[in-house]
Amino acid sequence: MAILVTGGAGYIGAHIVRAFDEAGLDSVVVDDLSSGHREFVPDDVPFIDLNITRTKKLTEALRRYDIEAVVHLAGFKYAGVSVERPLHTYQQNVQGTVSLLRAMAEHGIGTIVFSSSAAVYGTPDIALVTEDTPTAPESPYGESKLVGEWIIADQARATGLRHTSLRYFNVVGSGTPDLYDSSPHNLFPLVIRALSEGHRPKIFGADYPTPDGTCVRDYVHVADLAQAHVVAAQKLLAGESLEPVYNLGSGDGVSVRQIMTAVARATGIDFEPQVVDRRPGDPARIVASGERAARDLQWAMRHTLDEMVTSAWQAGRE
Q: What pTM did the predictor assign?
């Protein structure tokens, strides 16, 4: 028996695969390598090079493995770019989820943990987001993640599918030096790349309604996030009931400018970031409570901000 990890060659997915291995659970990875890396997948983990929107081929591929559950991360994940490419975003994220659920139903796979996003909340007007905060996504990416939650919940009502959706916030750091965030849009890899090339890192907008004018985010370490997936999958497979959604948040907000200060402290590089225009689709502030996940999924912030920055710097320079 094994757990299928869609998007398992990506930054977050690869950490989840490692976490399953550490827990003594076998996994199978499906990824089209549009943003993932083949070398992130261990040699002893079966790898399927495939876009999950190709339902027939996905169904055929799953026939070769004894899959008991799915952790679904595959999709187009860039909120700002999704504003410019809404049709592509919906095709990959909504159609992809429908395709996966069809393949799961074909093979009688009845458990799924879904990678959702804090983007479903948009820009909430409260200090701390909970799972009961109204959803109001402001980008096609956020909308596609919310629709994904709805589709999975509807399939559960129709078929008894066991499920939960984990709403991620800003995932950073590295659990091992050979796994790094290579996104061309995420803050940490952008800062690391700029410093490595001798350039000034950029801050996208310094005129937000926040204390220092830069976006405030909820940063969580990728290894902590991966562990929550392991617990969620284990509990669902054991027949335990979970909430339909959980926030994986720290409860504390850190501004982009504060991140820059932490980077300078961790690297020993003294720099003044360059302020440029805002990116479309970026909310001013989003910080969430992780209390419900702590109660049910053993969720905890086990890494400090400096540990997040240092591990990202070390992995990003490998």
A: 0.93
